[in-house]
Design a protein that fits this description.
Strand content: 5-15%
CATH superfamily: Glycoprotein, Type 4 Pilin
Number of domains: 1
Shape: elongated
Largest sheet: 3 strands, antiparallel
Radius of gyration: 26 Å
Number of strands: 3
Strand order of the largest sheet: 1-2-3
Structural class: mainly alpha
CATH class: Alpha Beta
Order of helices and strands: HEEE
Length: 150
């Protein structure tokens, strides 16, 4: 009589499956994180466009953009420093009563008049690293950026 054979996997078979799962996770993870970076850049561009629209309404009501010192906060709270706006909307210019942060949780930069847009304003995000310059996910995104399609 033969002894009954125990069914199961060998250690080598289990290690091979774990290795394959790890490789697949690395490949899929890299593709997903690339999509997340592109989505954040697109969301940043959309937020900048919304801030520009709110600033245009502010300008139509008050004859000028908020100064750099007044900043984007002027869109949610009436500035008390000169030049005080003449026709400030009591509800402000942004829904929710606050200036949004960029997708990476940092505040948007604002300059009026702009250096890159001397007849308007500059609005920017420093990207994922929060530092000027960079490339890829760390690249700066501003309302002067030439590539607005992505």
């Amino acid at each position: 009589m033969r002894a009954p054979k125990h069914a199961g996997f060998t250690l080598i078979e289990i290690m091979a499956v774990v290795l394959i799962i790890g490789l697949l996770t690395a490949v899929v993870g890299t593709a997903i994180f690339g999509q997340i970076d592109r989505a954040n850049a697109t969301a940043t561009k959309t937020q900048i466009k919304q801030l520009e629209a709110a600033l245009d309404f502010y300008r139509m009501d008050n004859g000028r953009y908020p100064t750099t010192d007044q900043g984007l906060e002027a869109l949610v709270q009436q500035p008390s420093v000169e030049p005080v706006p003449r026709n400030y909307r009591p509800e402000g210019y942004l829904q929710g009563g606050r200036v949004p942060s960029d997708p990476w949780g940092s505040p948007f930069g604002y300059e009026s008049p702009g250096t890159k847009n001397p007849y308007g304003v500059d609005i920017w995000s420093f990207g994922a690293d929060g530092q000027p310059g960079g490339s890829g996910a760390d690249a700066d995104v501003g309302n002067w950026s030439e590539d607005t399609s992505s």
